[in-house]
Amino acid sequence: MIYFDAAATTLEKPQQVRRAVFEAVNAMSSPGRGIHPAARLAEETAFQCRMEAAELFGVSNPENVIFTGNATHALNIAIRSLVRPGSRVVISGYEHNAVTRTLAAIPDVELTVVDTPLFRQDDAAQGFERAIADGCDLVICNHVSNVFGFVQPLERIAESCRRHGAPLIVDASQSAGVLPVRMDVLGAAFIAMPGHKGLYGPQGTGLLLCGEAQAEPIMFGGTGSASRQQEMPADLPDRLEAGTHNMPGIAGLLEGLRFVRKTGVRKIAAHERMLTAHASVQLLRLPGVQVFSTEDAFAQSGVLSFTVPGRDCEELGTALARRGIAVRAGLHCAPLAHRSAGTLPGGTVRLSFSAFNSKRQVEQFAAVLRQVLRENVTL
């Protein structure tokens, strides 16, 4: 199988990630729940994972690195910490349902959508500046669109937030491990990210990086600390980490973080951009294919969408899957992004790359797609 669905989950993991998960299942219990060797090993592993993440993402205190089940879990904590009924919130036109549905669940939120054309970073920066200057209580922005790979001008947006005193939540689901994401540069209130995408950890892992904003728990329970009191502890990370930790996941995530740091974020980004450009060229050679790409390499990451007018995207995705090509088709849990780009109601077919993909795989995919289109069959 050729796997081009890394924006959902990186299926191919470094060998050390797989090994760490297996070893943790057999050797670790729960951190903070005992003084025996299995608990101590879990505690040390969790601490090392926080340290690696803090170093990679510019977090001054490793205790401000919170383990979550995924980026959606992290975003729910961040949003519910800062948004109240009646809050005025500014978001981009390319947000995921993890943001929009969470906001929709809070009554009377006044939402401003910065709706700008694809890959137009200057327009996005100016749009956010105008919206923030008009007054808001919070800004939420994804760093990279999960549908189109559009890289938002995050540092310029963060600068606007600082200038106008607006807190910022960053959804780094598609950029963590691929592009520079630094808390010490952005000054965000929160940065949310999955462990199972660009960080090459197992599913069921995520991180929430906490800045200076007061974090509020959405889950309550045991933390292994302050057990006598009935309120959640005030200090991080315990305030946001109720219940037993996913130690096999955290052990695997630790090795994924080490892989990213050793390989280098810039090297991974350059590789994915090369594949995106190569795939775009291959697709544009096929008759009738519409490709959502840009010549500005720094405005797009390793995510590429396309459509074929007159052909159903999900049927094309099924046809490719039956021929050994794994892609994503449809709305990708981000209908707002499709509204902004004009790809409703059918959505797109999406390719998304990782450090383990190759140009040869891109060429094999293009050959298979050419055959599917020539035969005019989907199943």
List the helices and strands and how they pair.
Elements: E1 2-3, H1 15-27, H2 37-57, E2 65-68, H3 71-82, E3 88-92, H4 97-104, E4 110-114, H5 121-133, E5 138-142, H6 154-164, E6 168-171, H7 183-186, E7 190-194, E8 206-210, H8 247-263, H9 265-284, E9 290-292, E10 303-307, H10 313-322, E11 325-326, E12 328-330, H11 335-341, E13 348-352, H12 359-375
Parallel strand pairs: 1-11, 3-4, 3-5, 5-6, 6-7
Antiparallel strand pairs: 2-8, 7-8, 9-10, 10-13, 12-13
Helix pairs in contact: 1-8, 2-8, 3-4, 5-6, 9-12
Short description:
The chain is α/β, with parallel strands linked by helices.
Q: Please, could you describe this protein's structure?
A:
The model has no long low-confidence stretch (mean pLDDT 96). This protein has helices at 15-27, 37-57, 71-82, 97-104, 121-133, 154-164, 183-186, 247-263, 265-284, 313-322, 335-341, 359-375, and strands at 2-3, 65-68, 88-92, 110-114, 138-142, 168-171, 190-194, 206-210, 290-292, 303-307, 325-326, 328-330, 348-352. The strands form 3 sheets. A 7-stranded mixed β-sheet has the order 2-8-7-6-5-3-4, sandwiched between helices. A 4-stranded antiparallel β-sheet has the order 9-10-13-12, covered by helices on one side. The chain has a two-stranded parallel ribbon with strand order 1-11. It starts with a strand and ends with a helix. It has 12 helices and 13 strands. It folds into 2 domains: 2-10 and 264-375, Aspartate Aminotransferase, domain 1 (Alpha-Beta Complex); 15-263, Type I PLP-dependent aspartate aminotransferase-like (Major domain) (Aspartate Aminotransferase, domain 2, 3-Layer(aba) Sandwich), CATH 3.40.640.10. With 379 residues, the protein is of the alpha/beta class.
